[in-house]
Automatic annotation (TrEMBL):
The lineage of its organism: Eukaryota, Metazoa, Chordata, Craniata, Vertebrata. The chain crosses the membrane at residues 79-96, 116-140, 275-296, 308-332, 373-390. Residues 219-246 form a coiled coil. Keywords: Coiled coil, Membrane, Transmembrane, Transmembrane helix. This is Vacuole membrane protein 1. It comes from Anguilla anguilla.
Length: 408
């Protein structure tokens, strides 16, 4: 696999401190680097809390340009556009026509929306558009924990649908003793977990495509991660710090081991996996080799490890032991233990709520704090999207200026 890219010469080469451009001319490296550094600093200064009006203006402009580009690409792919339009027309006809098939259509709609929701959260967690939204900690992890606690309390995972998965309520029939096991809980949350994992795999594609396009076109992208990757390759022999050595280890594993190296990197919590995508793109690893290994690693192997950890952590006896340990804290133990016990009791009351009964009210401060943390993180994530798109617009305008200067 490594030979796929190893036999090719790099599209750009450096001669005497200067970089050869695609047109055969040489640009003075120090002046070019200095200008790019200033431009990058100018872009990074586009933040909502520093330049709100200019940032919003660039964000809206980038949004319009992106929509225009997507529309043009969609129109150019006439066969795909026709297929999509025909599919939407058929779906609309089936969806709006009354008949016995409607119950199956509704069921399919629910499942598709459910899958799309978790895939979208996975993409947000992996791509992040600059920051990343930790959707496992905010959404999937709490969902698995809720199902685990409910399963042990109800003695069953056959929660009535609806309201599940929006709300968990114990079934009216009592579960048999010992009917709930680790595997039944894992099976109950398998769809959500695998869809979230698939979303994280999809979110790893942008670094791969960026590096691959840069290698094939010979145009060096103004991307910090890619530049860091190139510098790391140039200084591989002199690497001293742990972080650089770890990145080099990931790069060598992916380059030399191939599919199973990518699978290994994707199957464990790995903050350096973006480097694996850049490495695969740079060395022209086939798309399905990269994406297949990433999908299996993240959606199957890694998700089962994470599910297992959450389910064990929130199993009934572990939770009771943790609450007891909180109560053993000197001086503050009883005060800290009380809200946790109240929260667990409130959750148990909600699980045994039946239709027609008054729903248990009252809000625990733990749930209140968690909700506010989620709101703050989502707001920060939205702000990061706006900042990132505004900076992309500024980058687009700077590149346009570079192109105009070259043609003069």
């Amino acid at each position: 696999m490594a030979q796929n890219g190893g036999d090719l010469e790099l599209p750009q080469r450096r001669v005497g401190g200067a970089k050869e451009l695609p047109n055969g001319k040489f640009a003075d490296a120090p002046s070019l680097a200095e200008r790019r550094r200033r431009d990058r600093e100018e872009r990074l200064g586009l933040l909502l809390w520093k330049k709100p009006l200019l940032t919003l203006r660039y964000f809206l402009l980038e949004l319009l340009l992106t929509l225009r580009d997507w529309t043009c690409k969609f129109c150019h792919q006439r066969a795909m556009a026709l297929t999509v339009l025909l599919g939407l027309a058929c779906f609309s006809f089936v969806y709006s026509t009354e008949g016995t098939h409607q119950k199956y259509v509704r069921r399919l709609e629910e499942q598709l929306l459910r899958c799309a929701y978790w895939v979208g959260l996975g993409v947000l967690s992996s791509v992040g558009l600059g920051t990343g939204l930790h959707t496992f900690l905010l959404y999937l992890g709490p969902h698995i924990a809720s199902v685990t606690l409910a399963a042990y309390e109800c003695g069953s995972v056959n929660f009535p649908e609806p309201p599940y998965p929006d709300q968990i309520v114990c079934p009216q029939e009592e579960g048999a003793e010992g009917a709930v096991s680790l595997w039944t809980i894992m099976s109950k949350v398998r769809l959500e977990a695998c869809m979230w994992g698939a979303g994280t795999a999809i979110g790893e594609l942008p670094p791969y495509f960026m590096a691959r396009a840069a290698r094939l076109s010979g145009v060096e992208p103004d991307d910090e991660e890619y530049e860091e990757f190139e510098e790391m390759l140039e200084q591989a022999e002199n690497a001293q710090d742990f972080t650089t050595r770890a990145k080099l280890a990931v790069q060598k594993m992916v380059q030399k081991v191939g599919f199973f190296g990518i699978l290994t990197c994707a199957s464990i919590p790995n903050p350096l996996f973006d480097l694996a995508g850049i490495t695969c793109g740079h060395f022209l690893v086939p798309f399905w080799t990269f994406f297949g290994a990433t999908l299996i690693g993240k959606a199957v192997v890694k998700m089962h490890i994470q599910k297992l950890f959450v389910i064990i952590t929130f199993s009934k006896h572990i939770v009771e032991q943790m609450v007891s340990l909180i109560g053993a804290v000197p001086v503050l133990g009883a005060s800290l233990q009380k809200p946790f016990r109240e929260y667990l009791e409130a959750q148990r009351a909600k699980l045994h709520h039946q239709a027609g009964e008054g729903f248990p009210t009252g809000e625990n401060w733990l749930s209140w704090v968690f909700e506010k943390v989620v709101i703050i993180m989502v707001c920060y994530f939205v702000c990061s999207i706006i900042n990132s798109m505004a900076q992309s617009c500024a980058k687009r305008l700077q590149q346009k200026q570079y192109s105009e200067e070259k043609t003069k």
